[in-house]
Amino acid sequence: MKKILLVLLIALSSPIILSAQSNDFKIVKSTDTYFSILRELLMYYVDSVNVEKLVNTSVEAMLNNLDPYTEFVSEEQSEAFDFMITGAYGGMGSLIRKTDKGIQITDPYKGFPADKAGLVPGDCIIEIDGVSTKNMDATEGSNKLKGVPGSKLQMKVVKIKTGDTVDIQITRVRIHISDVSYSGMLRDSTGYIMLSAFTKDGSKDFADAFQALKKTNKMKSLIIDLRSNGGGSLDEAVNILSMFVPKGTKVVEARGRLKEFEIVYKTKDNPVDLEIPIVVLVNSISASAAEIIAGSIQDLDRGVVVGTRTFGKGLVQSVRDLNFNTKLKITTAKYYIPSGRCIQIVDYSHRKEDGSVGNIPDSLISAFTTSNGRIVYDGGGIIPDINVELSAYPKIAYSLFERDLIRPYALEYFVKHQAIAPPETFRLTDNEYNDFVEYLMDKNFNDKIDSQLLFERFIETAKNDKLYDALQTEIDELQQKIATDKRADLMRFRTEIQRLLEEEICTIYYYQEGRVQSAIQRDQQVDKAVEILTSREEYRKVLTAVP
Fold first, then answer.
1. Residue where a domain stops, chosen among 146, 176, 206
2. Tens digit of each residue's pLDDT (9 = 90 or more) over 409-465
3. DSSP one-letter string for 131-195
């Protein structure tokens, strides 16, 4: 009997053993083929072969067959990758860009060395530690400015307001960019916190902002703005949720193929406020950890979600260290929020151009319920409780940004004006906007750019063919017509264009928080959030299941 059982066990296990052996054989075979090809290329290819580039290309091609988030991080990319995770680096604390004259300061961070040294937007760095920046690109300039905290940085800077060249020495510090882009009060009792990311200690940034609003103002409700927040650390997101739901609440679960990657995340800390009404703002670029906060708040009926459908990224990435200071960011699990739904888009082929969720067939969508019994759906991303679409900007506004025509004028305005009104009330006068229009008259920017370029080529050809003098009257009339059309477009879309220009000017005078303060004054989604929070009856109605 024992012999029969042994034979049966062997027979039953044979397919498993054979399957494992088959997989092992395929791995060995594929690996051997890969190295054989590489060896042949190195020995016999007609030109010299860059091995590192060849291998990196093959690795990228291999990973492209998986999901969009599994990626190889080379040694050169490690520093930037670490900054993305931690939000910290050693430097002077300013964004920069390349110009013809050198490296230009664009956005110094408030309170950091660049700001304390008096560097302002538009100042141009022409030397870094004795090396000219004229032929440096932005990446090289950024690398030169970064360094070990405590080290000295010597620069020659041309000041935008005076034109003087000055020597500036800065001591680099550890730069940690707060995840809170701005926090403040809207109207009399609504607090507002914009979170741009979830990096290390981001939840502390949020908690500090929340406590400051609660302590110094009569805050009775809260807007958490997660629009265009691409995510980051899940732990930081869980810490933020811990502030508003009971201790021990399950807010997200990771499920993977291996048990080691299956984790249930419950809030560990005592809540800070279980009663304050909350609205979470989201859009199509809100992703990952941002979606987990929005989705958990929605599933637990702890607040109302307003905006547009989110990105749909519910995949867990683990970072595996490889040889030679390289890393592999690999997808190991999927996120599931309290209702049991996964926020990951179920079909990559239905994404929009920006990567966000497109139309999902009904056959791929399942219904779930919130704590109060409200119906919510999976299929990709978080569908807001109240959908509010922002008005689209006209094409001409995008053209002005693409051709970098708003920032230079804003800098000219900065040179001419010592101070401006606070961002909440700053508005350009009619004369100031007309001055901007005149500034643009000889610039190529609108949707007629192709016609303008062809017209300019025609003028050049006419001059070469000695026909210009004979056609000058007609040419002048056409030039006038083009200028008239440009002026008409700038006046027709004045509201949208002026708003962008005002936001840019406020950024120069009041840092990045100035841009946010200016923008939210005329924001339909923010207005809707305030409206919902002002009407407690409407707020409760949204969170109540339809009988």
1. 176
2. 999 999 999 999 999 999 999 999 999 999 998 887 765 555 666 777 888 888 888
3. EE-TT--HHHHHHHH---TT-EEEEEEE-TTT--EEEEEEE-EEEE--SEEEEEEETTTEEEEEE
Instruction: Calculate what percentage of the chain has a pLDDT beyond 90.
Output: 57
Rounded-to-integer distance, Cα 483 and Cα 442, Å: 8
Q: What whole-number distance in Å separates Cα of residue 300 and Cα of residue 281?
A: 16
E-strand ranges in 58-145 read 71-73, 88-91, 94-98, 103-108, 124-128, 131-132
Alpha-carbon dihedral 149, 150, 153, 157, rounded to 10 degrees: 80
Contact indicator for 157, 132 with CB cutoff of 8 Å: no
Q: Please state, as a whole number, how many other Cβ atoms lie within 10 Å of the Cβ of residue 447.
A: 13
Task: Give the torsion sign (CA, 232, 235, 236, 240).
Answer: positive
CA-CA distance, 508 to 135, in Å (whole number)?
Answer: 26
3-state secondary structure of 354: coil
Q: What is the pTM assigned to this prediction?
A: 0.81
- Segment (H or E) for 304: strand 304-307
Q: What CATH number did the domain enclosing 260 receive?
A: 3.90.226.10
> Last residue of some domain: 150, 176, 202?
176
By percentage, how much of the chain surpasses pLDDT 70?
88
Does 98 share its domain with 164? Answer: yes
Residue from 333, 283, 279 nearest 312 by CA: 283
* In contact, 232 and 265? CB cutoff 8 Å: no
Both 362 and 349 in one domain: the answer is yes
CB contact set of 97 (below 8 Å; sequence gap of 6+): 103, 104, 106, 138
Helix (H, G, I), strand (E, B) or coil at 288: coil
Q: Give the whole-angstrom CA distance, residue 408 versus residue 118.
A: 20
Does 161 share its domain with 287? no
- Asked if residues 109 and 139 have their Cβ atoms less than 8 Å apart, the reply is no
Tokens 């190889």 locate to 72
Q: Using one digit for the tens of pLDDT, what is the confidence trace for 481-515?
A: 665 578 888 998 999 999 999 999 999 999 999 99
Residues linked to residue 457 through DSSP beta bridges, in sequence order = none
**Who's near 288: CB < 8 A, 6+ residues apart?**
230, 231, 232, 311, 313, 314
Distance separating alpha carbons of residues 217 and 184, to the nearest angstrom: 9
